[in-house]
Design a protein that fits this description.
The complex is a heterodimer of chains A (256) and B (324). Chain A is of the alpha/beta class and 256 residues long. Chain A is built from seven helices and 13 strands. By secondary structure, chain B is an alpha/beta fold. Chain B has two domains: 182 residues, HUPs (Rossmann fold); 123 residues, TPP-binding domain (Rossmann fold), CATH 3.40.50.1220. Chain B contains eight helices and 18 strands. The chains are: A alpha/beta (256), B alpha/beta (324). Chains A and B meet through helix 3, helix 4, strand 7, strand 9 and strand 12 of A and helix 4, strand 7, strand 8, strand 9 and strand 12 of B.
Chain lengths: 256, 324
């Protein structure tokens, strides 16, 4: 089985984010970057399928130069080769604009299975995988926790809301968006990191793919959210703050 | 300037989130231009329920192949419906797992891009969505021709505003899409429960909930001790359950349980929207977090910015002392 995994590089979870002077994106300088966590789960599922059935795992990622480090991490974890779609305007694209880039590359590879995370941790559109499926004319299923190969195609476990699940059967090729928590994420081994350096990493530019289009949905401005409640912040040492909180909970909120 | 509002059903009733989406839709255009859409194999009672609301019309999209949700059947049926309507300006959904599964594909099929997970609608209209796990808000605008697809996050609007009964009943129409079993490529099973539920967080009066800030499973007893001192149930945000540190049934959020206790104390939880929708109805919310900009503070009544490894033990002591 040939598996394509679409991954995204996002700001590291705890990295402080500041608004750029343009006010329509964050300040990227001095940020630390990491692999989008749901995409890491997609990669993990692909690597497990590879171990079970001897698949080839191809990583696809779009973004500027810096994305190379996240692609190397995926190769170090066990992906066989990678394609970097070099583009500096990823944040200016809407979900369709990003999906077009990924679909153009994935189409050339003609995989049996396309996996990606259910959403990104930065913009959280949660649409890219579904649109890639639509552009490629493939069936899809979202929020998947487990993938099983069957004679007819795939059986997957889909998460529903409030603790419910369902199982879905679908033919291959197909696109699945993976939910986090289905497996335990592996770390790259030293040997893996060494091997990654010799693995194929092909670069194509967005222009070469001819997948450009004006966005239909435009992110105009970003801002700090407005508070929905007036929060009383309790200052002081841990002990002082704790004592103040207990007092408030007893006398003001009356919940103790 | 008409709106198609796509309602979603669960156990034969329209979901509450769909009424919140109706309230949001009235921010785009008045009720006279809103058409409610119910989908299924038998939609009569759903249509009756929808006709009581402030909408101009209800359309029953009915076909035997719509008995169970699939992305393929819903996309095909709704595409035909939208194309049969004149001048649809907006197509509005509740941002549920189901809408997330097919609305992006439906929009794409019509050359559009869904504006998903909307938490606010302002003049313009400008649509607000959360970015960076809730630490920032983004303002989005739709450009170009054709209908604009929007899905509205639960809790973004109150279901009881703009969605009340208006005395008279909206007229109901039937729409029969052309569907073929060969169009439907996925075969879903009936939904099932993950595991036996042994904890009912929904009825807990007090909940202490723990997030990524706890760093390691070994640190959980410290939080459990606080929960015990408060007489509270221990709960968690998704990553803690993903890691297997606490069972899934203790998860609060869109993929876990929705809770509304008298006291909700969030320890080391940043407050991504998926978590907030599961707990923001709590009477009193307290957050302890090292990041003063963590979005959890936006919904909190009381906040302590600090190292939870210092604050939690101090709080446990203070609670115990107060009880004596």
């Amino acid at each position: 089985m040939k598996i394509a995994v679409a991954i995204k590089q996002v700001p590291e979870r705890d990295a402080p984010v500041r608004i750029a002077p343009s006010a329509n994106w964050i300040e990227e300088r001095e940020l630390q970057w990491a692999m989008n966590e749901p995409d890491a789960y997609a990669l993990e599922e692909a690597l497990l399928l590879k171990e079970q059935a001897g698949s080839e795992v191809i990583v696809v990622s779009a973004g500027p130069e810096r994305v190379g480090s996240t692609i190397r991490e995926a190769l170090a974890k066990g992906a066989d080769r990678a394609i970097h779609i070099l583009c500096d305007d990823l944040n200016g694209r809407d979900a369709l604009g990003v999906a077009r880039l990924l679909a153009a590359v994935i189409k050339q590879e003609n995989p049996d299975l396309v996996l990606t995370g259910l959403q990104s941790e930065d913009v959280g559109l949660g649409q890219t995988g579904v649109i890639v499926a639509e552009l490629l004319g493939l069936p899809h299923a979202t929020m998947i926790l487990r993938v099983e190969k069957t004679d007819a195609g795939l059986r997957v476990k889909r998460e529903l809301e409030e603790g419910w699940f369902q199982s879905i059967e679908l033919p291959t090729p197909a696109v699945l968006t993976m939910q986090s928590g289905g497996n335990k994420l592996r770390y790259a081994t030293l040997m893996g990191i060494k091997r990654a350096k010799t693995k194929e990493l092909r670069t194509v530019t967005a222009a070469e793919l001819g997948a450009d289009s004006a966005p239909t949905v435009v992110l105009e401005q970003i801002a700090a959210p407005k508070k929905q409640k007036s929060t009383q912040m309790l200052p002081g040492s841990a002990k002082e703050a704790a004592a103040a909180l207990v007092e408030k909970l007893k006398t003001e909120a009356r919940v103790l | 300037m008409s709106i198609l509002l796509v309602l979603e059903e669960t156990s034969g009733k329209i979901r509450r989130a769909s009424w919140e989406a109706l309230a949001a839709a009235t921010l785009l255009a008045p009720a006279e231009s809103i058409t409610a859409v119910v989908i299924g194999a038998t939609t009569e009672s759903l249509a009756r329920e929808a006709a009581e609301k402030s909408v101009s019309k209800v359309i029953r999209v009915e076909h035997p192949l719509l008995a169970q949700y699939t992305a393929d059947s819903f996309c095909a049926a709704l595409q035909q419906l939208i194309q049969s309507q004149d001048a649809t300006k907006w197509v509005v959904f509740a941002h549920t797992y189901q809408a997330r599964d097919y609305a992006p594909a439906l929009a794409c099929r019509m050359g559009q891009v869904l504006i998903g997970d909307v938490v606010g609608i302002g003049e313009g209209p400008v649509f607000t969505r959360q970015l960076m796990q809730g630490r920032l808000n983004g303002s989005y605008r739709h450009s170009g021709n054709g209908p604009c697809f929007v899905s509205v996050q639960a809790g973004a609007s109150r279901a009881d505003t703009g969605a009340g009964p208006r005395g008279t009943k909206a007229p109901v129409e039937l729409f029969s899409p052309n569907l073929d079993a060969t169009q439907i490529r996925t075969k879903p099973s009936e939904p099932f429960r993950g595991s036996e539920q042994t904890v009912d967080l929904g009825s807990a009066q007090r909940i202490v909930s723990v997030g990524r800030g706890i760093k390691d499973a070994q640190n959980l007893p410290m939080v459990q001790e606080l929960a015990t001192a408060l007489g509270a149930e221990l709960a968690a945000s998704r990553p803690i359950c993903d890691n297997g540190w606490l069972p899934m049934e203790r998860q609060v959020g869109s993929s876990g349980q929705t809770v509304a206790p008298r006291l909700y104390l969030a320890v080391g939880i940043s407050g991504a929207i998926q978590h907030l929708v599961g707990m923001k109805g709590s009477q009193c919310i307290v957050a302890i977090n090292k990041d003063p900009d963590a979005p959890i503070f936006e919904v909190s009544d009381y906040g302590i910015v600090g190292d939870l490894f210092e604050v939690v033990p101090a709080l446990t002591e203070a609670v115990k002392a107060a009880k004596q």
